[in-house]
Amino acid sequence: MKIDLPRMPKDLPSKNFHDIFYEEDLELEMCEIKESTFDNEVLNKVRLSNLVMKGCKFNNTDFSNIDITDVSFENCDFSNAILKGSSIHRTMFKNCKLLGVDLTDSRFGNVQFDNSLLNLASFGNSKFEKVNFQENSLESTDFYDCRFKKVEFIRCNINSANFEKTSLKGIDISTSNFEKLIISLADLKGCKVSTFQAIQFSSLLGLVITD
């Protein structure tokens, strides 16, 4: 699946995330931000666009209703941050930590999560279109009542993830690993799985497979 990458010019000027306090409309755009720390803050309805962020920390910060477009996050830490009600498009999270992040009621389009930690993250009631999860840890992540359209899970740890009320029809999880999932049989219909995973699901049905 081809995902539209963040669009941004080269040679972006450097800024600090705290510069946003000097903007009346709470907007940051067209810049690169490195090693900025913005923990335990509350900043609602922020707009980020055409940015590169590297090594930034946003632990426990409330970014509810944030709008993110054409942004690349590298080695950033969003542990326990609140981004509910977000709109995130043409964005990449690479080598990021999103442990326990709240992304409920959000919209994702052309987003890639690459080699990132998303254990215990909450995505409930969100919509995903053209989203790639590649080599991430998604253990006990909550996808309750989500809508998936062109979503990929490539070599991810999805153990104990919750997919209740989320249809996996057409979704390929065959390269990912898990010991158990929280999902109904109806929502599993049409999901693409490996032979080993099919045996795992058979055991959940109480089937006994013999030679």
TrEMBL record:
Q: Which domain of life does this protein belong to? A: Bacteria
* Signal peptide residue numbers: none
* Family annotation (SUPFAM superfamilies): Pentapeptide repeat-like
Gene3D superfamilies for this protein: E3 ubiquitin-protein ligase SopA
PANTHER family tied to this protein: ANTIBIOTIC RESISTANCE PROTEIN MCBG, PENTAPEPTIDE REPEAT-CONTAINING PROTEIN
Q: What's the protein called, per UniProt?
A: Quinolone resistance protein
Organism from which the protein derives: Salipaludibacillus neizhouensis
The taxonomic lineage of its organism, from the top, reads:
Bacteria, Bacillati, Bacillota, Bacilli, Bacillales
